[in-house]
Amino acid sequence: MGGELTPAELDELLAAYALDAVDDDERAQVDAWIARTPRARRDVDELRETASMLTFSTDDDVPTDLWSRIESHLSEAPPPLRLAPVLDLDDERRGGASTPTARADRRAWLVGIAAALVAVIAVGFAVVEARRNSDQDARLEKMAQSMHRRTMESAASEAMLEPGARIAELVSADGKVMANVVTTIDGRGYVVVDKLPKLRDGQTYQLWALMPDGMTPTMVSVGVLGRNPTVSAFTTDTKVMGYGLTMEDAPGVMVTDQPMTFEGRLA
User: Fold this and answer.
1) Burial category of 200 from C-beta neighbours within 10 Å (exposed 0-12, middle 13-18, buried 19 and up)
2) Do 85 and 207 fall within a single domain?
3) Which residues touch 253 (CB under 8 Å, ≥6 apart)?
4) Which of 30, 107, 178, 263 is 20 to 30 A from 46 (CA-CA)?
């Protein structure tokens, strides 16, 4: 036995214990310590959970030098155990005993290693937590987008039922309805996408109002819809005749030289 450890020494060994880096005697004493000390048990559980999360993180989740820093700490040699002088034959047959100073040196080395590992793991934990927060932000953003879409869809449905509202079906060259555009008598408009294909990165759909201008309607931009639109709102002149969609380079243009990919007149 290496002697009874003080509460302070037991607390110092919690990190090493969580990483399974203590000897049998120390493990037995720490086991007893955490069995009667709820705070110590929580500390060990948190350390193990953090180490586990770090273990299952991908290479992109942790700093590039994290594992090399852990390895460098583990590669440090522990201080040698110095044996006490042989006092008699019985001591000699027992092989001698490590001195209190040697045990203290070893424990100081072990605590130092564990502290270094905890510090390094804390870095990884911060990265994992940042990723968790980022994932949570992404989920919240997705929820906000879904709520916004439902609100817009509801507003578009209500607009279609307003007296005097007109609807244009934007169709493809083969006659397929790809989107519907509703315009109210006060110039509010909604475009509701049905089957528009998603564009590649760097492209966007752009919505144009067809305004009367002699034999050829004038095209006035009323909205840049993005590469994968759903429901969008806009305002326009009440004299609008119809609408058309073009595919443009992001972020859109003031005047287009592209042909109408989908087009429809207001009914």
Assistant:
1) exposed
2) no
3) 206, 221
4) 107
